[in-house]
Amino acid sequence: MFKLILRNTLRHRLRTTLTILGMAIAILSFGLLRTVVDAWYAGVEGAAADRLVTRNAISLIFRLPLAYLNKIQTIDGIKKVTYGFWFGGVYIDEKNFFPQFAVELPTYLDIYSEFVVDPEQRQVLVKERNACVAGRKLAQRFGWKLGDIITLKGTIFPGDWELVLRAIYDGVEETTDETRFFFHWDYVNETMKKNFPTVANQVGWFISQVEDIERAPLIAAQIDATFANSLAETLTESEKAFQMGFVSMTKAIIMAIQVVSYVVIAIILIVLANTMAMTARERQEEHAVLKTLGFQGRHLVTLIAGESVAIAFLGGLAGIIAIFPAAHFFRTALGNYFRIFNVSDETLAICLLIALVVGVVAAIFPAWRAARVPIAEGLRRIG
Amino acid sequence: MAPESTPPILVEINNLTKSYRRGVQIIKVLENVCLNIPEGEFLALMGPSGSGKTTLLNLIAGIDQPDSGLLRIAGVDISLLSESELAVWRHRNVGFIFQFYNLVPVLTALENVELPLLLSELPRVRRRQQAELALKLVGIYDRKDHYPRQLSGGQQQRVAIARAIVSDPVIIAADEPTGDLDKVSAGEVLQLMTRLNQELGKTIIMVTHDPRAAERASRLQHLDKGVLNACTV
């Protein structure tokens, strides 16, 4: 039976090849679109449960006074607090975009333990006021080496900012973002004090590490209560919720991507179902002969479904194999937009599962019909 | 001198009726057909197109069901069997030979002959041996690894005959087995069928338009407009 399924699959080589190709492209598209969505959520997935983000309650673009730091630190249950802001400078050209943050480096690196810095490099990094640290992928992207001078043109903070690369961090996991760039908040603040004193001593956000995750919501409420009715009221939420806020701004796009990915699967399902229906129709007489020999409806269902699943599986497998070079291309070409573009095991498993389901579903109608056609009708002869 | 024993009746047909529906029209194909076929007989069914001979053959072979009447084969009223029971019954009792051979094009001659045995409990080696034996019996063993497209019409029909006899059926139903063959090949196929009947004692029911083919049969029955007229060869 297996041999017959295999031979039937190869009977119309061109048709089978084209269907497998179509299936492969559909699965490749689905896998890539799913990976795009995953990449979108990468920040959310990378968020730690023990970190709370405190920002201005009105909007993220409004800052908070540094003076809040001491008050936050005294709240019971908080282990460590760091702070910083989004710098948003331009490196040589705008197309060279990468996320830049001016942060309180020692505490920041303590709280963000997923960014691993060599102890010797860290020592120098912390000591030098214009030192900076870049992720491994970012350094590779621009060919930076330790000691290189990186000049950023400020867009929010005017001027040219010369920074010396003193450390390169590695992600603790494969999915850790290695494209970030950090330098001393103090370095920016000192300049602000001199040139724009009204915006000095301000931060974009505080990040608090809590001792007990269970108490995090309570602590968040406590922080906000501390600054209630002040000039800059705060909004404190978990890091995940904070990241989710960014993602939800683009929810419609994500939804559209997800819909497109399922539409692609629906199309290939129809294509394969049509192929199988055509195949079954062509073999109607052959199926009648098999029935004459004693084969039953279930045997024909096995033959047709087996062929359909074989085509879908081969197409799915080809699509899955193609996902890796395609994802690599995306990572290289769109690295600015998708800092993490890894094809997850879950995506691969779903792709394979979808291929198999498509194979089975596509065979249902042709197999049902083949099983039901009376032998005499199948032989098309009435004496 | 002992009296010659009469072979038992293998196929017993009484008042068999069959009609088909085409749209709103009901076409009566067989009407009150009565026929007994003894075991080991070679029966030829003749008649003009549309006379119902293939329908009668299909009913006897269990690939169609009658509307009414008795259709008993080897003591089993096959009109009472369900579709799946009938499939099992066909596999065990009937070998079918088609006009256009109807071999599976993606299987070799040997694999085509082995096909009905896939439904049996036989192990693979035993199946192969049996299929090879059937091919030897019809004299086409040397072409066992050829695909149907690599064989002539006569050779393909021999393979089809081997497929029909491989599971040692009680009845061989042949629907115009020489209809698509040249004179020489047709003669060879008919000779083979005669051998199966005479040497192996197979009961053969053959539908044919060819009077020369019918001459090989031990009995000839004419059908006209669904009614059977008895005529002994």
Task: Kindly describe this structure.
- The complex is a heterodimer of chains A (383) and B (233).
- Chain A is an alpha+beta fold.
- Chain A has two domains: 2-42 and 250-379, no CATH class; 58-232, no CATH class.
- Chain A is 56% helix and 17% strand.
- Chain A has 15 helices and 13 strands.
- Chain A has helices at residues 2-9, 13-40, 42-45, 68-74, 105-111, 119-127, 136-142, 185-195, 216-226, 239-249, 251-282, 284-292, 297-333, 345-372, 375-379; strands at 51-56, 64-65, 78-86, 90-91, 100-103, 115-116, 131-135, 149-153, 160-171, 181-184, 202-203, 205-210, 234-238.
- In chain A, the strands form two sheets. In chain A, strands 1, 3, 4, 5, 6, 7, 8, 9, 10, 12 and 13 form an eleven-stranded mixed β-sheet that branches. In chain A, strands 2-11 form a two-stranded antiparallel ribbon.
- In chain A, strand 8 (149-153) and strand 9 form a beta hairpin.
- Chain A is elongated and about 95 Å long.
- Chain A starts with a helix and ends with a helix.
- The model of chain A has no long low-confidence stretch (mean pLDDT 89).
- In chain B, the strands form two sheets. Chain B has a six-stranded mixed β-sheet.
- In chain B, helix 4 (124-137) crosses helix 5 (153-165).
- In chain B, a hairpin with a 2-residue loop joins strand 4 and strand 5 (76-77).
- In chain B, 31% of the residues lie in helices and 28% in strands.
- With 233 residues, chain B is α/β, with parallel strands linked by helices.
- Chain B is built from seven helices and ten strands.
- Chain B has a single domain, classed as P-loop containing nucleotide triphosphate hydrolases (Rossmann fold), CATH 3.40.50.
- Chain B has helices at residues 53-60, 83-93, 109-114, 124-137, 153-165, 183-198, 211-214; strands at 9-22, 25-38, 42-46, 68-73, 76-77, 94-97, 171-175, 203-207, 219-224, 227-231.
- The A-B interface holds A 1, 3-4, 7-8, 10-11, 285-286, 289-297, 299, 374-376, 379, 381-383 and B 20, 29, 47, 49-58, 61, 63-64, 83-84, 87-88, 90-92, 94, 96, 98, 102, 104-107, 111, 115-116, 118-119, 163, 175, 207.
